[in-house]
Amino acid sequence: DDWAERGAAVHVQREADANGNVQTKTIKKGVKDFTFGRILGEGSFSTVVAATDRQTLREYAIKILDKRHIIKEKKVKYVNIEKNTLNRLGDHPGIVRLYYTFQDERSLYFVLDLAPNGELFSVLKKLGTLNMECTQYYGAQLLDAVGYMHDHGVIHRDLKPENILLDENMRIKVTDFGTAKLLSMQKSVNGTTGASSDNISGIPIEDDRSNSFVGTAEYVPPELLTDKAAGRSSDIWAIGCILYQLLCGKPPFKASNEYQTFQKIIKLEYSFPALFSPVARDLVSHLLLTDPSKRLTIEQIKAHPFFADVEFGPALWSRKSPRL
Ligand SMILES: Nc1ncnc2c1ncn2[C@@H]1O[C@H](COP(=O)(O)OP(=O)(O)OP(=O)(O)O)[C@@H](O)[C@H]1O
Ligand SMILES: O=C(O)C[C@H](Cc1nc2cc(Cl)cc(Cl)c2[nH]1)c1ccc(Cl)cc1
Is the pTM of this model over 0.95? Predict the structure, then answer.
């Protein structure tokens, strides 16, 4: 019928009603259901546009990809990885949520949470550095979001301030999952694997597929340069680089070109500015370790004195963001 032509797609939405019974309803969304507004930004293969759902008047960010361009640049795999990964990570306040996908003859559409306050990177560039309180707050939110990803068998592999967006409450929304690594999920304790694609309940198993992807130079861990597989600890390395950068304004490994940046990473050639707080120095130096198995885990980082006065869990996502 008409919605098929309109490039709509059927989405099954599960919602528990008052007494906990799960109701499923099918929602058909397509281009015609949205009013498109301002362009939020452009990627190499995408344009992200603010859009309003004409029925609910809710605002979204819609990422539009040109099919011909995707095919020509051989990015079909990345687009489908982004869709599958976002479907797996459907329910965390610190991760950009994917509501619908659909296509028409020319484009693919991802209907995502709108993060109206741009990239954490832009805020950092404007302010130069963040103070301890802000770094603890944004660092804690990043840890919570990455911990959720890892629990759901997703390794981001390209964490950086440009991929950390800010929502209307200046809380983070991690984005850009097209280069994520999805671990296969084995049977969970009650013997069932995830029933549906969007809420897999299971235990991720490390499968050591070789890497074809390397992230952004300044945040790449050494194991990706000596061609070993990326694991959860690769994201931990990137968290170390980000915490360092929030506090002193530049990433720990930065040279005039990528090759020299890679050399510094492999040689672990970095130093702390004199004013770098000792407790932050202790944490970062336990993340930027060449041996991935030596790096702290998410839980160990949350327990580190640097985050002593941060309350993790739901409060982290309802408390007021500190003034930047
Ligand atoms: N959910 C969102 N809300 C608001 N702005 C967004 C959202 N997603 C992306 N943007 C902005 O749109 C621009 C393009 O984002 P997109 O993820 O499509 O490409 P990219 O990953 O930034 O670029 P590339 O594909 O080259 O890596 C970016 O500047 C980003 O800040
Ligand atoms: O998995 C699905 O639901 C169906 C499709 C899969 C899909 N169809 C495609 C067509 C083209 Cl031309 C390119 C890509 Cl990457 C394509 N990916 C789809 C539709 C929309 C979006 Cl945003 C992603 C994938």
Answer: no
